[in-house]
Specification:
The protein is built from six helices and no strands. It has helices at about 10-35, 45-65, 70-90, 95-100, 105-110, 115-140.
Length: about 140
């Protein structure tokens, strides 16, 4: 008797689509926090590090979109490497890079000021991304 295997490419595509949808939600939450956090009276700590947390969760989810066959642990390691590289890149200054950092896109993608506390927020954000991904996978199964 022949037992059919689940169609792995379809499962990987579904995982990528779910992660992309989650990334869009996280992006919307991050932008909302950055744009409306202060007007709503949220503390600067929540706006600053909440945005960093959500940025790292987005990085984890987007890495998962691009590399769906990897485990969550592998995705988290890649996301952490990206986050650390971006944070330490803030120590590099060139005219074109500093000009880009002054734009909204540059500030959101790369940030402006180096802070070791961002690395803590990134770790929490990646853990949050792993949790979201696991929760979504359980709901779909």
């Amino acid at each position: 008797m022949h037992v059919t295997q689940p169609d792995k490419p379809v499962a990987l595509l579904r995982a990528s689509l779910i992660r992309a949808a989650l990334a869009l939600v996280v992006i919307a939450c991050g932008l909302s926090l950055r744009w409306y956090g202060f007007p709503l009276g949220l503390p600067a700590f929540v706006v600053k590090y909440g945005g960093s947390l959500l940025w790292a969760a987005m990085v984890f989810l987007l890495v998962g979109v691009l590399l769906p066959p990897l485990t969550r642990r592998q995705l988290a390691a890649i996301a952490a490497a990206i986050a650390i590289a971006v944070e330490f890149a803030r120590l590099a200054h060139t005219p074109w890079l500093d000009a880009f950092r002054l734009t909204t896109a540059g500030a959101l993608l790369l940030g402006r000021i180096f802070s070791l506390w961002n690395l803590v927020a990134y770790a929490v954000g990646i853990a949050f991304g792993v949790w979201l991904d696991r929760l979504a996978a359980m709901r779909v199964s």
